[in-house]
Every structure is written in C-alpha cells, then in structure tokens.
C-alpha cells in the first residue's frame, strides 16, 4: 500500500497555531452572549403575558399552552437571577483577594 496515494486522496488539515483571542474580542463575544440571553428571557416573558391576555379574553382555550409558557418564562427568569447572583458573588470574592 502506497502511503503517498492515501495522503493525496484525503487532504490532511494541519491545525492552525492557537490564536488567543484578544481581551476586546472576548469582551465583545461575552457581551453579545449576555445580550442574546436577556433577549430570550424577555421574549419568553412577553410570550407568556400575551398568552395570558389571550386566555383571559377567551381567544385561546388551551390551558396547557398557557401553563407551559408561564413555567418556561419563570424558569428562564429564575436561571437568569441565579447566574446574576453567582457573577456578583464571584466578583465580590475576587475583590476580597489580597494582592
């Protein structure tokens, strides 16, 4: 078996040197991630409120749909609050570290 024939059939990708992202790139990506997450939580809250309004007006009769949307929005908000609490706790712990 000819090894050169195999390397010609399947191109071998050489790993690119590990390029470390800059602080600005990481900050931008993290900010975009947080913004996207907050938008998703807000959208779930708005959707839950809209379904509750439609249910109260008699436009929809599926109570399960309303309950699932409400619980989904509630869980997302609780998760967001817990992440926020952990971030604040971590920041406070870092600030207590001696230099």
From TrEMBL:
GO molecular function terms attached to this record: cytoskeletal motor activity; structural molecule activity
UniProt keyword list: Bacterial flagellum, Cell projection, Cilium, Flagellum
Location (main, coarse): other
GO biological process: bacterial-type flagellum-dependent cell motility
Pfam families linked to this entry: FliE
Subcellular location: Bacterial flagellum basal body
Family: Belongs to the FliE family.
Name of the molecule in the record: Flagellar hook-basal body complex protein FliE
Gene name of the record: fliE
């Amino acid at each position: 078996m000819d090894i050169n024939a195999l390397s010609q059939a399947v191109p071998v990708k050489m790993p690119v040197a590990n390029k470390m992202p800059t602080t600005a790139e990481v900050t931008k990506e993290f900010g975009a991630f947080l913004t996207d997450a907050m938008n998703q939580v807000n959208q779930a809250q708005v959707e839950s409120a809209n379904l509750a309004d439609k249910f109260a007006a008699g436009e929809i009769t599926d109570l399960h749909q309303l309950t699932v949307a409400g619980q989904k929005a509630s869980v997302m908000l609780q998760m967001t609050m817990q992440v926020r609490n952990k971030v604040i706790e971590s920041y406070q712990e870092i600030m207590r570290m001696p230099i």
